[in-house]
Amino acid sequence: MVDDDEILIFEDDEPSAAKPTSQAKEDRFWKVMIVDDEQDIHSVTRMVTHQMQFMGLPVKTISAYSGAEAKRLIQEHPDTALMFLDVVMETDHAGLDVVKFVRNELQNTQTRIILRTGQPGQAPELNVIVEYDINDYKEKSELTSQKLRTTIFASLRNYRDIQAIEITKHNLEAMIKYSHELLHEQAIHDFASHVLRQITTLLHLGDDALYYRTAHNGDDKEVLVGIGEFAAYSDKVLRELPPEIQAELNEVHRTQNNLYYGDRYIAYFKTAEGSEHILYSRGKPRHEFSEYDQHLIEVYCHHVATAFSAFHKK
User: Fold this and answer.
1) For 205-221, what is the mean pLDDT?
2) For 265-268, which contacts have Cβ atoms below 8 Å and span 24 or more sequence positions?
3) Which of the following CATH numbers is that of domain 181-312: 3.40.1000.20, 3.30.300.20, 3.40.50.450, 3.30.450.40?
């Protein structure tokens, strides 16, 4: 067991204070919880995750040495992406009790749980998979370093997709609500913000984004909505934005092409009427978009612009 004063999140195998994932990008990471009463298991897992990254964010570990400690830590870190869970610790079924606690009492269905046991006879694989809401079952002897890395990446990918589905579900509910209430400008802003969050989540674009347009008559570009750190830019014009953002947006406007700037993605399209629309997103390293992804961005920009135009014509 570790004392409350011991550091439980590791970075480069050195102690580091735990930081909530809602902080700035450089403070965000994927949490992997190791629950095992054997110190060597913690050391090996931390060695494997050392300097590991997924989607541009580091993987860091949280250590628990008993089932009771695991229950406390998962309450403190509900955003844990993956839990490697030993079956036999202070009791022969301590790990299974943790599974019940996470799934039933905490109603946490997102954290991926992988049972690891050195005593497979204590928990027959088929029975455990059928009776408990776990995501995989591994004997400790079969998890080589390479297989452990593969398992971690696969689990983080699953966790990411589950998060996207959950956020999408909530945003769809909001879309349904606001689609019947687009009678005033604030409702349109709320609607546009909800849909923008949905798109950035589905396309894994990042948490900070803004959408703006400029009319064909040459009016200054107006930010219609912003989310994340860009929420403060809603209803601003281009000259009111930070200089670095102005420069990047002007370059996209000049080239009339989608552009990447490191972790920033800027999508451009122009309507038949001459109105230009740009979606600026920050937070994820460069990745390729399918034709459907591009189409989804264009559909979003088109419908939000139509809603704002219809309102201002009233």
Assistant:
1) 71
2) 265/205, 267/294, 267/297, 267/298, 267/301
3) 3.30.450.40
